[in-house]
Design brief:
Dna Ligase, domain 1; 24% strand; homodimer; three-stranded antiparallel β-sheet; 2 domains; 6 strands; alpha+beta; DNA-binding; globular; 128 residues; three-stranded mixed β-sheet
Amino acid sequence: MEAKWPEGLKKTKQRTDVYEVLLGAEAPMSAVDIFKKVPDYALSTIYRILASFEKYDMVIKSNLPGEDNSVYELNRGGHTHYAMCLKCHELVPLKKCPFEHVDIQTEENDFEITSHKIEIYGYCSKCK
Amino acid sequence: MEAKWPEGLKKTKQRTDVYEVLLGAEAPMSAVDIFKKVPDYALSTIYRILASFEKYDMVIKSNLPGEDNSVYELNRGGHTHYAMCLKCHELVPLKKCPFEHVDIQTEENDFEITSHKIEIYGYCSKCK
DNA sequence: AATGCAATTGCGAACTATTCGCATTTAAAA
DNA sequence: TTTTAAATGCGAATAGTTCGCAATTGCATT
């Protein structure tokens, strides 16, 4: 309900509702998923809201392959990765970031790494 | 020119030419990138060829965020990951897979991992 | 509480990457 | 060489996302 709201991001009914939806989600959602939860708002508005949230680092946008759309999740600080079931497409969170104690080396030895994304695939307990 | 060709994949001028293009590429290419190299073939044919290559595990299809298209690279066996420069979008290969000696644990403890993708972001030597 | 204005929204049209349908061509098996 | 399933070219269709613009709304200032 009440939560930190970025300075400079105007509060509107649409934005707070979309924020609520993301707060209640336990897996990343697509724009259309969100749209279905708040069908009174225009889909293009959902996209614009998500873009504004992304600009303020409130959400993380990901593109899961196999799917042709983007999904969004609230940026809750400590970053989370997911494993995706190739059969039912369920997303299962990883216990911890596998890169925690790994150092990554590029061919170009001057590359400054700022962030990463990980996609894990396989079969969930129900599907295998 | 002569290289292993999967059993059951019919050899056509279009397919071998697309294969050549991918062989000569040192970074993943989009369908349109490839199309520009072989402009006599229909773009839809390029897509279908890439889909057939993917089915035979000859290419790896990836979706780089920020870009709204997919890119394809030849599957050369030992898998490679890339770091992407957030400024110039150059792709720099990693020296080795960071997951080589890491075990990944999901919340659901029965998840069977079969593969992974990694996306590293940052700034290349030229851009930072 | 009323005013002003920039930011946001709704609506539909536009755009882009990708896929599909179908008639024609072609690889390669017989 | 004949045959036949698979591949291609072409344009149209689709899906996700973005854009333009007029109408609305948040919120700072009176």
